[in-house]
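Reviewers of the previous submission asked for a worked example of the structure-prediction workflow described in the proposal, so we include one complete record here. The input consisted solely of the amino acid sequence. No template or homolog information was supplied to the procedure at any stage.
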Amino acid sequence: MKRHWFFIAVHILLIFNISAQVRGKVAELGPKGDTTVLTGVLVNWLGTQIAVYTDGNGDFSIPLNGKSNRLLLSVPGYSNDTLEVKEPGKFMFVKLRGAQLDEVEIVYLTGGTEISYLNPIKTEVLNERYLMKAACCNLSESFETNPSIDVNFADAISGTRQIQMLGLSGQYAQITKENMPYLRGLAGNYGLTFIPGTWIQSIQLSKGAGSVVNGYESFTGQINTELRDPENSDKVLFNAYGNQSGRNEYNLNASRKLTSNLATAILAHTSYNPLAQDHNHDHFADIPKGNQYNVMNKYAFRKSAFEAQVGGGDMEEKRDGGQFKALLHGYNDSVPLYKTGIYNRKWELYGKTGFVFRKKPGTSTGLQLSYLDHDQTNFYGNNKYQGRQKTFYSNYIFQGIIGTTDHMYKTGLSYMDDEVAESFNTNNYYRHERVAGVFLEYARNYKDKLNLVAGIRGDYHNYYGLFFTPRLHLRYAFTSGSILRFSGGRALRTANIFSDNSFLMVSSRVWSVDTSHHAMPYGLKPETAWNYGVNFTQKFKINYRDAYVTLDIYRTDFSSQVVVDVDHNPQQVLIYNLKGPSFSNTAQFEFNMEPRKRLLVKTAYRYVDTRVSFRQGLLQKSMVSTHRAFINLAYQTKANHWQFDFTTQYNGRKRLPQTVLNPDGLKRPAWSPDYFNLQGQITYLTKIGGWDFNLYAGFENLLDYKQYNPIVSGTQAFGPYFDASMVWGPVYGRMVYAGIRLKLK
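From that input alone, the workflow returned the following C-alpha cells.
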C-alpha cells in the first residue's frame, strides 16, 4: 500500500482517445427542471443510416461523417429534437421533453450483450447489465455467462482460471485495457484476476483478425476492457461480496468533476480469502488463501476539440496454497507439506490524448502511452519461478478522410520496449524486445451496403527482423438486419513459455526446452498464424419482438508455433518449435429471442476441432471440449425491482494428456466425461434516498459436480508422478454467494 496514493497525483503523462466521435448524454427534462437519463434513444445523422442508441446511462457515441452535421434524436413518447453539431469534440448534454400524451411508459430491456450491425468487424459489447448476471468479481469471471469464451481452472491447487477462445488458450487473444496492451508477458496466467469487475464499464469482444491499429498479436480475436470513465461514472459505487468459502471482496469507486473541463475517479479494491478448505478430499486446499490490494486513479480533461486521460494504478497480490496441517488427518512432521506461494506486484502509468480537427470532418489525431513494472515471485513445491517485466508502449494514430467519410484511413507509428528477466529453478532467461512499427488502414463505405477495412503494418523486431501483418475485413448487408462478414489476417507473438504455462509447474514434471535458435528468446522461433472466418447475422421479429441468429466459422492455421508437449512423457514438459500442421477449426451458432415481454433467451452451440503436431504425431489438443452448448435465461419484473438470471452450460468431453507410462493406479483415462454446469443469480433493485441499492445472491455449479481425484499421485506430492495440472472440470463444487451494491449517480 506504500505507493497506492502516489498515483492520485499523476498529472504528467499524455493519453489516448483517438476516435473521431461525437459523444453526449440524453435526459428527460421534468416539469420542475429536473432531469432523468433516457436509455434507448435513437441518435442518427440526419439523412443517413448512421445511428446508435443511448446506453443504460443515457450516453451515446456516434462517428463523425461528412454528409451531415445535424443529429436527430427520437424515442417514442418524447418530442423529436434535431441538433446542429458545431463543436464535435465537446461533450453534449441533451434534454428531451415528453410529448403531450395521456400516459407513456418507456421500457428499455437489454440482455447485456449488444452486437453492432454497422461495424465491418463483428463486435459484441458486454455492458453493465451483462456484468450483473453473475458476481463478476474480476475479469476472468466475467466470461462465465458468455458462449464464445470458455473459463476453466488451470490446475487443482492455484485457483487460477484460464480462458479459451476459438479453441486456443487465452494468450492467443489480444487482451487490451482501454485499447492498450494488457495481458502480456508475466501477466499471462494471473492477469485476468487483476481487473476487478466493478471497475469495468464494458467489454468489447471481437473474433478473428483484429485491426492493425492495435498491433500484430491478435490470433483469435481481441478482448478490450473499458474501465469506468471519470466523466460519466457514478459519483459513488460500493460493492461488497462474500461466498461460502470465506472469500470476501470490497470495491469502492468514486468520481468527481473538479472543474467544467476536468474530472477524476478513484477505483479501489481489496479481497481476502482467509480459509483453506478441501471439499474434494484430495488433501490439498481447493483455493489458496491470500489477499489482493488494488487501486487506480484516473483523470479526464476535455476542452473544445481536445481531450485527454491520464492515470496510474498499483496492485499487490499474495496467494498461499497447497497442503495445510489442518486439512491432513494424522499429519506427521516427518513428511514435508507441499506448499505453493504466488506473489505479484504491479504498477502502471498510462495516458491518451485526442484532438478532433473541427474544420475537417472525420479528421483526428491521438497518442497512447503506457508504462508497466511487474514483479512476480512464485514457488510450487520444489519448483521456483521469478520474473520481472518492464514495458513501455506508445502508439500514435492519425485519422483522415479522402474526399468524404465514405473513404477513411488511419495511419500511425508504434513502439514497444519489453524487458523481461526470468529464472526457473537453476535456469536464467533474459530478453529485451524492441519493436518499431508503422501501419495504414483504409475503410471504404458504399451506401451502407458494403464496407471494407483493409490494413497492413510493418514492424521491425530486434530479434525477428522485419515482418508484415496484413488484415482484411468485409461486411455486406443484404438488408439492414441481414449481415455477412468476412475477416482474415496474420499475427505474430513471442511465446512466454513459463508465465503462459505456470500451471504445469504444479507437478514433478521435468522441463526441457529445445533451444535450437539461440539468437531468439528462449532459443525458440516466434509464433505466427493466419486466421480467417465468416460470420452471418440475421435479425427478425418473433411475436413483434426482436430476435436474431448468428453463425460463426473460423480457422486458425499456424505456420510457426511453440509446442508445449505433455503427452510424450507424463514426467516431462517438452517445449519445441512446431514441425508439421497445427490448426483450430470452430463453428458456433447462436439464437437469441424474447419469447415473452422482459424474458430474454440466449442459446448457443459450438464445435471445436483443434489439432497439433507433436513428436508422436498429429493429435487433438488436450483439455479442449469438442462440443459445448449454452442457454441463458434473463428476466426482470415490470418495475425492474427484480432481475433473474440462469445459465446452463454443457461441456463435452476433453482429451486428456497421455499417462500410459505411469504405474497402474496412477494412469488416467484417455478422455474426460462430459458434464453440466448450472449457475444463477437473483438481484433486488430499489432506491434508498438518492442511492440505488442492489442486493444479489447466487450460486455456481448448482449440481455440485466435482472432478474426482484431480491430482495424480496426490499422496506422494514430492514423488516423480505427482501432477496437479490434469484438471478438466470443477474442483470446488457448489458455491453460494451474496453481495450488495450501492450507487449514487
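Helices lie at 128-131. We consider this example representative of the routine output the project will generate in years two and three.
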